[in-house]
Structures are given as structure tokens and as C-alpha cells.
């Protein structure tokens, strides 16, 4: 990544170029206060394996995207406010020169081409962060990689073609379909959508949700009597709606 002190015109031109490289669907990046600190390729660990992504560090956010064939066009843009990011340095292991980027919506491993590059990224992100506020949202659990467990981490049955792997959105564990058939709102991922969670996490989350729903009803109607059947119907309808809810570039069989 380039370590640069930019002239304002140059900064603007470079940000415009980044904005353009994401096409018309990308977020507007050019803002008066925004400075492009550096850019480069990092390998991001995802369920489908390690993939090179284009990363752009601004003074207030980190932007990354998948690289389209010729290497100058990017898609699947992700924008993470720097205030919400927490970094964790890791020893070489699964990947060389790797570290962990934790955010409220998603946490993932990245690796740089060299140790120097890794340290530059981590240092620049940390320096930019010191002046920024955090949303205070809890950070998402890092998903346990698919190959890390051959058995469901809740019921210990072996995975196979008929007994597939899924991820609990709350604890990040690899679990089977049966152990993750429930859905619940995980606030740091989405404020209202119900997402796949394991049974253990569901108990805690659902308890919290029910308490909030009860309060809400009491506030609206001035009574606290339950309406279980209606509610359950609505819940299963929503389960169906969000059945395919997946995070970014993961396959539908999450
Ligand atoms: Zn299981
Ligand atoms: Zn869980």
C-alpha cells in the first residue's frame, strides 16, 4: 500500500478513479473531508477459500471489493466505517502475514503479500481510527471455516452431503441444519431481519426479543396479554423470507 501525503487535486482524482472502478452501483466516495490513504490487494479468507480483493483505506472508512477480470474494475463493494473496526494481529498459520478484521456485521481474516505490507495496513488503520467515533455495536463473531470441523459443533454428528454445514450467525460455529433451524434477530448484523442461529444462541436471543416485543405491545395497546398464534405465524413467514439471507459472497447453502 502506498504511504502518501497527497495534494488535494491528486486526492480528488484518485478517489474519483476508485469510485468509477466500482461502477454506478458503488457508494459515493468523494466527500470534502475524505482522504484516500492507500490501496492494495489483500487476500481475504472466505468460505470458498482465499480470494484476492481490492482494498482502499480512507481516513474514515475501509472499502473493498472483488476484482473483475482485468483488475481495474471491482464489484461487490463493502464499506466499513473505521470506527467500527477492530484489528487483531495473528501469527502466520492458515495464511502467511495474516490478521483479523472484526466489524459489527462481519469478521474475517486477511493476509498481505509481506510482513511489511501487513504492518503498514494495520498501522495506518489504527492511526486513522484514533480520531474517529465508534458506533459501539458489538463485533460479529468470526465464522469457523468450513474445513475446520468434520462434525456439527453442537450435536457432534458428522457432516456429509445429506447433513450439511451451516454457520450460526451469532456464535459463528459450524452446525448442522437441524441444530440451526431457528432464526432470530442478531442486532449487530441487521436490526430486524431474522438470520440463522444455532439452538443454543436462539434461546438467549429469542428471550431478549420476546421481552422487547411484549414491551412494545404493552406500549401500543396498553395491555400485556400474549397473541401467540398470530405471532408464530408471522415468525414462520419471516423465517421463510430470510431463509436465503446470506452474507456477501457466500454460497446459499450457508
Ligand atoms: Zn447438529
Ligand atoms: Zn450459535
Q: Main attributes?
A:
binds zinc ion, seven-stranded antiparallel sheet, 26% helix, two-stranded antiparallel sheet, 254 residues, Herpes Virus-1, 2 domains, alpha+beta, 11 strands, PH-domain like, disordered N terminus
Q: How do the strands and helices of this protein lay out in sequence?
A:
Layout: H1 8-21, E1 36-46, E2 49-58, E3 61-68, E4 73-81, E5 86-89, E6 98-102, E7 107-111, H2 115-129, E8 166-167, E9 174-175, E10 182-185, E11 194-197, H3 199-221, H4 228-241
Antiparallel strand pairs: 1-2, 1-7, 2-3, 3-4, 5-6, 6-7, 8-9, 10-11
This protein binds zinc ion (ZN) (2 copies).
Bound compounds, each kind once, are:
zinc ion
In whole angstroms, the N-to-C terminal distance is: 33 Å
**Count of folded domains:** 2
Helix and strand element order: HEEEEEEEHEEEEHH
What's the CATH topology label of the largest domain? PH-domain like
Biggest sheet, spatial arrangement of strands: 4-3-2-1-7-6-5
How many DSSP E strands? 11
Amino acid at each position: 500500500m502506498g504511504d502518501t501525503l497527497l495534494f488535494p487535486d491528486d486526492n480528488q482524482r484518485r478517489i474519483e478513479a476508485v469510485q468509477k472502478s466500482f461502477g454506478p452501483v458503488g457508494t459515493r466516495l468523494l466527500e470534502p473531508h475524505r482522504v484516500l490513504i492507500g490501496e492494495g490487494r489483500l487476500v481475504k479468507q472466505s468460505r470458498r477459500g482465499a480470494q484476492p480483493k481490492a482494498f482502499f483505506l480512507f481516513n474514515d472508512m475501509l472499502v473493498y471489493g472483488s476484482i473483475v477480470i482485468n483488475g481495474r474494475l471491482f464489484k461487490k463493494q463493502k464499506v466499513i466505517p473505521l470506527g467500527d473496526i477492530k484489528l487483531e494481529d495473528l501469527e502466520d498459520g492458515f495464511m502467511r502475514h495474516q490478521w483479523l478484521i472484526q466489524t459489527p456485521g462481519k469478521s474475517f481474516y486477511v493476509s498481505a503479500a509481506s510482513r511489511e505490507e501487513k504492518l503498514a495496513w494495520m498501522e495506518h488503520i489504527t492511526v486513522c481510527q484514533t480520531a474517529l467515533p465508534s458506533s459501539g455495536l458489538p463485533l460479529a463473531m468470526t465464522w469457523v471455516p468450513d474445513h475446520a470441523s468434520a462434525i456439527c459443533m453442537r450435536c457432534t454428528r458428522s457432516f456429509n452431503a445429506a447433513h450439511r454445514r451451516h454457520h450460526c450467525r451469532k456464535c459463528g460455529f459450524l452446525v448442522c441444519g437441524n441444530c440451526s433451524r431457528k432464526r432470530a434477530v442478531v442486532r449487530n448484523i441487521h436490526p430486524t431481519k431474522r438470520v440463522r442461529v444455532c439452538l443454543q444462541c436462539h434461546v438467549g436471543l429469542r428471550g431478549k426479543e420476546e421481552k422487547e416485543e411484549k414491551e412494545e405491545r404493552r406500549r401500543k395497546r396498553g395491555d400485556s396479554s400474549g397473541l401467540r398464534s398470530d405471532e408464530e405465524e408471522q415468525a414462520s413467514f419471516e423465517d421463510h423470507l430470510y431463509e436465503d439471507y446470506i452474507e456477501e459472497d457466500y454460497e446459499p447453502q450457508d
